[in-house]
Design brief:
Helix content: 55-70%
Structural class: alpha/beta
Distance between the termini: 57 Å
Number of helices: 19
Shape: elongated
Length: 582
């Protein structure tokens, strides 16, 4: 875990090295000041030597300025190193997430990934800065103060040496007990973020069903869980501060009492007693710092584990050593394919799938909910790998291709249509970042999106809100289809992507596909028979198996499932909007 996090220090390694050195310089200078002060009192004030006071006083000012410079530089480089580590961690995680397959992504919730990229990284940043500055400063201050104290008077110095050992032991016990609660609290942040994300993204539904109170109570429960765990953790460390204060003042009283007797007996000077009291404060305040460091580290250990879970996750899908960089055509073959989302599962989502689709064909796919239609097409662009058998595109196993090359030739319009904040042009150019305005407009014409876009006051420069909240479901689907067409793919997959479009517009889109992209293999998943009946062939899925494969007429004659769906949909005279328009 430490090695994984430390790799991200990278270009901030030098700043990480010099920060403790500057803090050490500050400690040395601070340690010298009480010693010099004792000299001023004993050899200057008590003897009336003004020259000695000036000389030592000047030396104290120099020490203070050098210590101040060391502290400032240590703070500057410490901030640079910790902020740089946080930047690199976020980038490394985000970049690594981009390499994940769908099966990798399924292991982490979106809210959990957001928490890791924000809250957990911030905890690491704060802990790293504390470690660089205080983890060197506090122990060095304790050691230097103890050395100087024993040089002055070993008997008095042993008092707070014993106190420091006792406090250190108690501190370790407290922190160990608190750590287990901190390890539990950060996964609760995932639940909190998930609740917030779900509520904000679905705020229109929440308001439509008047569920504001329900959502508020759900958020309160998530917040309450975090509150309780933090309180339990703090209960373990809350005794630390008063215990430290009790020890500090007890040591001061004891040293003052014994020291006063030693001064009377001429075995200790007033200046030495003042120095010992100052060193006592230094030692015990450094222990306070150490307690803060331990608490911060105990919090960050839980965050570090969660970050490493992401960074250490191995992508399930990787490119072959010598990948093929060109897809010959849009032909597709499934050869005895079995597929399961979990590698160790004996239950297959898809079982013994055999298909042979010619390049340029239009293939319809229908089936009930849960019949694995989406799982079938996800294997074509290698969003998942098959469990058994093989899937071939262009005559080659999809595992032989460079994944970027393959996915650029297999355009998928997913079930959940997503648009990003930006103009319509910017959204369309996700399909092809080099596309001209004319090419974007032509793709929209094929997707029957051009008319409604031109109806907007700003046309293609209309700003799309996050998630496409300012366009209708049908408009969003058509924009996503146009975006996919801009890739000029050899295979186009529409995963129930015209469900929000009326049948007349659906027919126009299919007609445009036949006439304008005849060489592109088109796979259309749909719930409506009207969306697939004019396809070259139709696949009927049932519980992860192919129940039928043929033309509309063949399936009507031979396939009971297809015939039942057709009769249920067409028995009432067809879709109500089949003669409609936009």
């Amino acid at each position: 875990m430490i090695r994984t996090i430390a790799k991200q220090v990278k270009e901030y390694r030098n700043a990480s090295i010099v920060t403790p050195l500057f803090m050490l310089l500050e400690v040395v200078m601070e340690t010298m000041i009480p010693f010099l002060m004792a000299s001023i009192i004993d050899d200057g004030v008590n003897t009336g030597d003004i020259g000695h006071i000036y000389r030592i006083g000047g030396l104290m000012i120099v020490c203070a300025l050098v210590g101040l410079s060391g502290g400032m530089l240590g703070g500057r480089f410490g901030a640079k190193a910790s902020a740089g580590l946080a930047k690199n961690l976020r980038f490394a995680m985000f970049e690594h997430i981009q390499t994940f397959s769908f099966s990798n992504i399924d292991k982490f919730s979106p809210a959990g990934l957001v928490t890791r990229l924000t809250t957990d990284v911030t905890n690491i940043q704060n802990a790293y800065q504390m470690i660089l500055k205080m983890a060197m400063r506090a122990p060095a201050s304790i050691i230097c103060a103890l050395v100087m104290a024993f040089m002055i008077n070993a008997r008095l110095a042993s008092i707070y040496l014993i106190a420091a050992l006792i406090l250190g032991t108690i501190l370790i016990i407290l922190v160990v007990h608190a750590t287990k609660y901190f390890q539990q609290v950060f996964p609760k942040y995932d639940d909190l973020n998930a609740s917030i994300e779900e509520n904000v993204s679905a705020i229109r539904v929440v308001k439509a069903y008047v569920r504001e109170d329900h959502e508020t109570k759900k958020l309160n429960r998530a917040s309450e869980n975090i509150y309780k765990l933090f309180v339990k953790a703090e209960h373990n460390v809350i005794v630390n501060a008063p215990l430290m204060q009790l020890t500090v003042y007890s040591c001061i009283i004891l040293i003052s009492w014994i020291g006063a007797k030693m001064i009377v007996a001429d075995s200790l000077t007033t200046g030495e007693l003042m120095s010992l009291l100052t060193y006592c404060m230094n030692i015990l305040s450094s222990l306070m710092m150490l307690s803060m460091i331990f608490v911060m580290i105990s919090m960050s250990v839980a965050s570090a584990r969660r970050i490493c879970e992401v960074l250490d996750e191995e992508p399930d899908l990787v490119n072959p050593d010598q990948p093929r960089m060109e897809v010959a055509d849009g032909s597709i073959q499934f050869d005895h394919v079995d597929f399961s989302y979990h590698k160790d599962s004996n239950e297959y989502v898809l079982s013994d799938i055999n298909l042979d689709i010619r390049s340029g064909e239009t293939i319809g796919i229908i089936g009930g909910t849960g019949s694995a239609k989406t799982s079938l097409v996800n294997l074509i662009s290698r969003l998942y790998d098959v469990t058994n058998g093989s899937v071939r595109v262009g005559g080659r196993d999809v595992r032989e291709y460079d994944m970027e090359v393959l996915r650029n030739q297999v355009a998928v319009v997913l079930q959940k249509n997503v648009l990003f904040s930006g103009t319509i042009y910017e959204n369309l150019r996700w399909g092809n970042k080099e596309a001209t305005d004319e090419e974007c407009q032509e793709a929209c014409r094929l997707a029957c999106a051009d008319d409604f876009i031109r109806a907007f006051p700003d046309g293609y420069n209309t700003h799309i809100e996050q998630g496409g909240s300012n366009v209708s479901g049908g408009q969003k689907q058509r924009l996503c289809i146009a975006r996919a067409l801009l890739k000029n793919p050899k295979i186009l997959i529409l995963d129930d992507s015209t469900s929000a479009v009326d049948t007349a517009t659906d027919a126009k889109i299919r007609r445009a596909f036949r006439e304008d992209i005849p060489n592109t293999t088109k796979l259309i998943i749909a719930q409506r028979i009207s969306s697939v009946q004019d396809a070259d062939r139709i696949i009927v899925m049932e519980e992860g198996r192919i129940d039928g494969f043929g033309t509309h007429e063949e399936l009507l004659a031979t396939n009971e499932i297809y015939r039942e769906v057709y009769e249920s949909q067409m028995g009432g005279g067809g879709d109500f909007d089949e003669n409609g328009g936009d």
